[in-house]
Amino acid sequence: MPDCLLRRVCALAVCAVVSTTLLAVPAQAQQRYELAEGETVGVMGNAFAEHLARSGYFEALVQAAHPEARVTVRSVPWSGDEVGQRIREMNVPTAEQRLEQYGADVVVMFFGMSESFSGSDGLEAFERQLTAHLDDYLGRQFNGESAPRLVLVSPIAHEDLGAPLPTGDVVTAHNADLRAYTGVMRRVAEAKGVRFVDLLEPSLALYAEHDAALTSNGIHPNELGCFYFAKAIGEQLGWMEGAAGDAGAADTLRALAFDKFYHERLHYAATNTEYVWGRRADPFGVINFPEEMAQLETMVAVRQQAMWDMDKPSPAQLFADAPTGPAVWEHTPTSRDFPEDTWTPTPVELIDRGGSIGGEIQSPDAFLETFTLADGYVAECFASEQDFPELACPLALTFDDRGRLWVLVSPTYPHVLPGERPDCKLLILEDTDGDGKADGMTVFARYLDIPTGFAIDGDGVVYVGQAPYLFKLTDTDGDSVADRKETIYTGFGMPDSHHTISAFVWEPGGTILMHEGVFTRTNVETPYGTMRTRDAAVWRFDPRTLELTPIAHTGHPNPWGHTIDQYGHGIMMDTSGTHQFNFAHLISPYVYPHKPGKPAPVVSRGRPTSGSEIIYSRHFPEDVQGSYLSNNVIGFHGTFWDRLNFDGSAHSGYTSERMPQDLIQSSDSNFRPVGCELAPDGTLYIIDWCNPLIGHMQFSVRDPRRDHTHGRVWRIRHAERPLVDAPDVAGADGEALLELLKTYEQNARDRARRRLQRGDPAVVLPMLDAWLEDLDEDAADYGRLMLEGLWIHQAHGSINVDLLEEVLDLDDAAAVAGGVRVLRYWLQLGHIADRDADRRIRRLTDHEDMRVRLELVMACAYLADADDAKDYVSEIAEMPMDQGLQIALQETLRYLDSRPDPAGAQQGNAGEAEGNNIARLLELKGMPVEALAQQDLTDTTVAAAVLEREDAPFPYAGKR
């Protein structure tokens, strides 16, 4: 039976279990909920409310049901909002402040989905919080005269979309929880005399009735879902009987509603919250943003007026025809144009706070004269704004399977001006004649609004980060132009347009790492639960399952670069500081919002850095293979070059030393290299922001010296060495792709691997396993190739414990560490039985390589038996440790102490190091001498720390 049909049969069975009386709308809900002349309706709540507002259907419903009442609708939804917590970045106005500003007479609330992931354990707290929330609102006077009337809307049911998304018993159990939370909402609403709308039972019926999915991920409505769920709200509020109107006006009304919400969102949830309301508003934001916010209010009001003035359809006509094709919001924003959209901002005074300022931007040819390169290397201009005007403000790049260069450009950066249509783009540059210079360009996507990262996933599929959204762009007809723009998630933090999700990089296991900086408050609702981070994090996103996991959460201010070596070990930049870290040292089990300590850096050369690369290219000389490149954009305008070293007996990550020469430096401070990547021919490409100004703190976002028209791509090659023959990844069949995994160039391996990971697992995995069987065990790259096979299984969701066992038995320590990393991933997401992991961890705790022991420590956090996990960690603690391993060990113990035991009792507090002697010992070993001197020496843990330290102020220090 086809999956889609099976899902519908299951949904019908669920509906049969639920009696028809439950599915029927209660009689009271059929009574018309009347909105009076001139009333204001405030909409608040979670991501469901945001999706509904973006669709335009809810406001269109309100206006169609009250065609002459001139009702104002103001929406302030926020992903992750719950009745008990509504997290905002610093000084961002709360929902209550906005409702008071708008003078809300009626408040429509959407809650329950995020809360439901707490299960039955959270029901009591939810009821208590909901009661307090309603009491609070009923005691307010947002309009200055009377308490608001409230409408409480339940969550929809979780739609079973089949594997690899949550399915079967998991969805059934979640829907049981959703029904319980909906019951609480109904009961509390009745007790408080609040109108209640039940979307849970109608949504189950709708899922059973329709073959097409109504949600994008099981819990968030797509365009079709918004249509039916808004209609269900209208039915329960008695709004479907309306005055006759023009059915043809339905699309116009809904488009206006969307366009209004688009500008409304720029106002209540602005990009650059730190500069609009937060710590960095003074001295520049306080000048320009108040008038910009006022202009947005004018634009919202104009669109509200246009809806009042138009001939409106009746509600029945509005919902006469279900939508087909792309969602209304995919063309962001609409092309509506009102006279009031044109305005003249106050001129900005040219002041700064000591930032780096460039002069007039020279031509590419003149720019070449400013470069100093390492001996033997030459630079060439691959592309510039002179030949391609669209190449303005490039900030990210990568090559695709066909060898084309994709560049993300953001001329709208750092903040869209009210009334202007953002026009950031994703470009495809081609060199068709092989002369090292672009001669063709295609605009894959435009009208983006300050996108900050992207990742290509095959032919015509690209993921783009544009906070608060993560988009999936798709070219459906093969013309290299995106036709669809789906919202995967919303809720990523927006404190600063250069702190939002950026520096996208593929992990070899088939997931995308996305980075965000300090000040962020990210709250993303997923079908696995609501994920939250605070003040910087690294996210892992799995395009196959839509799992979104925060995996690193140290206080790194602004990560804008991450490169991964051939065994999966990464180096991440901390752009605002001078440090770049072994990524494994930043990973630890996550307890929101705790921040682990920072380890020692790999590289510490200058700031701010942006974009990095490890050289695996036969075009470069043998003596620089495996070396590390990192760009710098202030002070030193160029690309640093460092040699990477590794000694597993002394370190759990890379160390580095400076190369005799850096790769490139410019004497022109307009040179702003912000990204780099090795090309299929082995040369290095660098994108150049090419701007007199960079950064926000030092200059106004409206400083006229900011350039929005220039951008370059530079190509660096060795003057005497041949280019690499670029492999045909796009045209390779499965066997050829497997053979490409043996090639030296990592960029070719990465693209071939990802192509295999996207293939049909029924075809790819048997072919892969046969290929692995034929590998030469004596070959130098045998361990890496076995790990390649494990990564392909991992990306397909194939939990191959036999292959894992083979990798963990290898003599290649780097491959073993990579295997343990896969084991940790499987444990963390519940993909592997605990018994399979336990014995593998136990036999590796005394591994001679510190890199392996580091990965083991982090994997121990996710073993089911916390006591066993602590025993393994204790064994590892008896062996040599560097600072990175010590921090990982301490954080794992914190996490294990915070986990509930099988009886449900807490084992400690994740924020306290004292919960475990080993963690306490590590804390004492890293404590300043003055603080250590104040500790109680009769405490055996303190005494042990003193014996470990040569610098301790006691006679027996260092005598252990």
Q: Could you please describe the fold and organization of this structure?
A:
By secondary structure, the chain is an alpha+beta fold. Helix content is 33%, strand content 18%. The chain has 29 helices and 33 strands.
Short description:
The chain has 960 residues and is of the alpha+beta class. The longest helix has 29 residues, at 281-309.
**In angstroms, what separates the terminal alpha carbons?**
69 Å
Mean pLDDT: 91
Shape call: globular
* Low confidence ranges: 1-29, 902-916
Strand content: 15-25%
**Rg calc:** 29 Å
Which structural class fits the helix and strand makeup? Answer: alpha+beta
Q: How many strands appear in the DSSP assignment? A: 33
Number of helices: 29
Largest sheet: 6 strands, antiparallel
Question: Helix proportion of residues, in percent?
Answer: 25-40%
